[in-house]
Design goal:
Strand content: 15-25%
Number of domains: 2
Order of helices and strands: EEEHEHHEHEHHEEHEEHEHEH
CATH architecture of the largest domain: 3-Layer(aba) Sandwich
Largest sheet: 6 strands, mixed
Shape: globular
CATH superfamily of the largest domain: Nitrogenase molybdenum iron protein domain
Structural class: alpha/beta
Helix content: 25-40%
Radius of gyration: 20 Å
């Protein structure tokens, strides 16, 4: 910990984290760690979610040098002592409900907070993408780091390009999904994901899944997904989603793949201007390429 004036940060659970000086050794949930990396902050340790395995998920890791930063575990196997052995000054995570520290069991989070400040940034349905991005920027700023002005200009240009590509009567139908396996697929509810809501705000025509009980997803068979006739598919690139090669025997998936452009989509992307610029640019380029072929 840098010995300077006292440090504090009010997180998105409404809790004030305090320290005697600016924290320098940070352990982070991998998505948060990837975001901090884009702001020039190198975590000393990473942890995953209950969906993750014994190693880090590259999709969540963004541009983190995952072979160089210790991965401390995930889910129920993650013990507070393991996190504390990294000697953190601060633990940074995300929250979906503004109450729970995502990636840590409640007991683990409580024990951890008895020893080290824990900060969460809300990334759930109640937050806009720009708001999530700015909250991480505020945290990074409190830690003495930030994104260069040029990155903000690049994001502005990417948003403009996406709006221009998405306009017009022949705008493509875009469907975001996470493959559960050969039998089922989770279709994303656009309103539940800050990045998908941002796409809609920039004019992207997102397909709404059928009504169902899920808050973030509707789970259906592949035939029902194919009936939505997407032109572009945003396919979950995280390791917990089924791979495209696992789906080749599914006729409905083959029909989707034959007619649609399939792009990787990370529902837990780093929340930085750099990452969002890449995402918007890729989608804008794909829309323009499809329009050129039409």
């Amino acid at each position: 910990m840098e010995q300077s004036t006292p440090w504090e940060f009010s997180d998105d659970r409404g809790r004030l984290a305090v320290a005697g000086g600016r924290p320098a050794r940070i352990v982070a949930y991998i998505q948060a760690g990837a975001t901090l990396w884009d702001h020039g902050i190198r975590p000393v340790g990473l942890f995953g979610s209950p969906h993750d395995g014994t190693g880090p998920d590259p999709a969540k890791g963004g541009e983190l040098p995952l072979t160089e930063i210790p991965y401390l575990g995930s889910g129920g196997a993650l013990h507070p002592d393991t996190l504390l052995e990294a000697e953190p000054d601060l633990v940074v995570a995300v929250t979906y409900d503004c109450e729970q520290v995502y990636g840590l069991e409640s007991k683990t989070a409580l024990e951890l907070e008895a020893h080290v400040p824990v900060v969460t940034v809300a990334v759930g349905p109640g937050r806009g993408l720009a708001e999530v991005r700015e909250r991480f920027a505020a945290l990074a700023g409190s830690l003495g780091r930030g994104e260069p002005l040029s990155v903000a200009r690049e994001l502005d240009a990417a948003e403009d390009a996406l709006r221009q590509a998405s306009g017009g009567p022949d705008a493509p139908r875009v469907l975001a999904l996470s493959a559960a396996g050969p039998e089922r697929v989770h279709l994303a509810r656009p309103g539940s994901w800050p990045d998908l809501r941002a796409l809609a705000e920039h004019g992207v025509g997102l397909r709404e899944p059928p009504a169902g009980p899920g808050t973030n997803w509707t789970t259906v068979g592949w035939a029902e997904a194919a009936e939505l006739a997407p032109d572009i598919v945003l396919s979950d690139a995280r390791l917990n989603a089924a791979r495209r090669e696992e789906l080749r025997a599914v006729a409905a998936w083959r029909a989707i793949e034959d007619s649609a452009s399939v792009l990787p989509w990370n529902p837990e992307s780093p929340c930085s201007r750099r990452a969002h610029t890449r995402f918007f640019t890729l989608l804008a380029e794909t829309i323009r390429e499809r329009a050129a072929r039409a």
